[in-house]
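Priority: medium. Attachment 1 of 2:
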């Protein structure tokens, strides 16, 4: 399909784009969605964004699952574990926030925002770990909620927040947004000077994308509206004023078995994984993911940005 000459890469601005088609595979809804990948920076964007995306987010989608609360005793254990983890690097039963929290090294009193927080489970774990100023933003949640003392979920966009933060994070939410420019500017504006931005998202640098194209499980048409390359996101964020501190790849075996399920014409049915793949094959996939992460070729990454301290 010829691309309108007005269309530009949302990350680097180049108009040299290559279009391709993809269909909805997670649920098996099909359809025909036109994406483009950029010749210059490699980033991917959806050109034909459905006016109503709600049919593609069924009620079982992760944002709407039930929050798992912890008892007082469990919270106490979690807070001890958090202290041991942050202060001494000790992690037993590797916590879900593991590696990236260790890199961010926030103080327990820091004001932290999670953009695209869904049911707030991640913030709740931070609360249980001892953090006390936590804010979730998600315009798609049913209602605003004070989940715990010092933990509020806001039914709004980050742009509408009335305070500034020490840390803003997005865990696999960025790729669901239409305008990287707008959300990055909002993050910059809502961060205190010296504040940190963590973006975890799929990346177009991956081997699995290059080899499998529209079958790549994390292309996830039409839910993923943008998928940056490392260079594309770096460029765009630096243009806004951020400095990129580090990129850490954190892909898993999901990139292989998810993509293979699609190649076999299946939907994303986790129950089918054991039907198609032996334990040895799964282990080999996990090993390969670790290797690709080290080479910067896994299919998702964590970007650690900082808003510079004004001189
Ligand atoms: Zn580009």
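Attachment 2 of 2:
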């Amino acid at each position: 399909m010829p691309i309108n000459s007005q269309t530009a890469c949302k990350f680097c601005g180049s108009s040299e784009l290559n279009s391709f088609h993809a269909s909805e595979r997670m649920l098996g809804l099909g359809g025909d969605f036109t994406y483009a990948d950029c010749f210059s920076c490699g980033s991917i964007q959806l050109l034909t964004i459905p006016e109503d995306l709600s049919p593609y987010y069924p009620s079982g989608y992760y944002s709407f699952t039930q929050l798992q609360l912890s008892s007082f005793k469990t919270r106490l254990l979690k807070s001890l574990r958090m202290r041991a983890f942050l202060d001494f690097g000790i992690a037993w039963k590797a916590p879900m926030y593991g590696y990236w929290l260790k890199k961010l090294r926030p103080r327990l009193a820091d004001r932290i925002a999670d953009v695209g927080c869904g049911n707030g489970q991640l913030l709740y774990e931070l609360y249980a770990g001892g953090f006390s100023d936590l804010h979730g933003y998600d315009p798609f949640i049913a209602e605003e909620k004070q989940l715990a003392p010092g933990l509020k979920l806001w039914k709004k966009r980050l742009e509408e927040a009335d305070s500034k933060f020490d840390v803003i994070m997005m865990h696999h939410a960025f790729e669901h947004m239409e305008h990287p420019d707008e959300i990055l500017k909002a993050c910059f504006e809502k961060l205190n000077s010296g504040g940190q931005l963590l973006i975890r998202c799929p990346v177009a640098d991956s081997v699995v994308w290059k080899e499998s194209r529209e079958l790549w499980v994390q292309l996830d048409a039409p839910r993923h509206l943008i998928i940056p390359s490392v260079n594309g996101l770096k460029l765009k964020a630096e243009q806004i004023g951020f400095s990129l501190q580090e990129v850490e790849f954190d892909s898993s075996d999901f990139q292989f078995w998810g993509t293979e399920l699609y190649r076999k014409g299946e939907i994303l049915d986790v129950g089918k994984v054991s039907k198609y793949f032996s334990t040895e094959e799964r282990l080999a996939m996990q090993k390969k993911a670790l290797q690709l992460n080290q080479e910067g070729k896994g299919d998702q990454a964590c970007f650690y940005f900082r808003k510079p301290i004004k001189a």
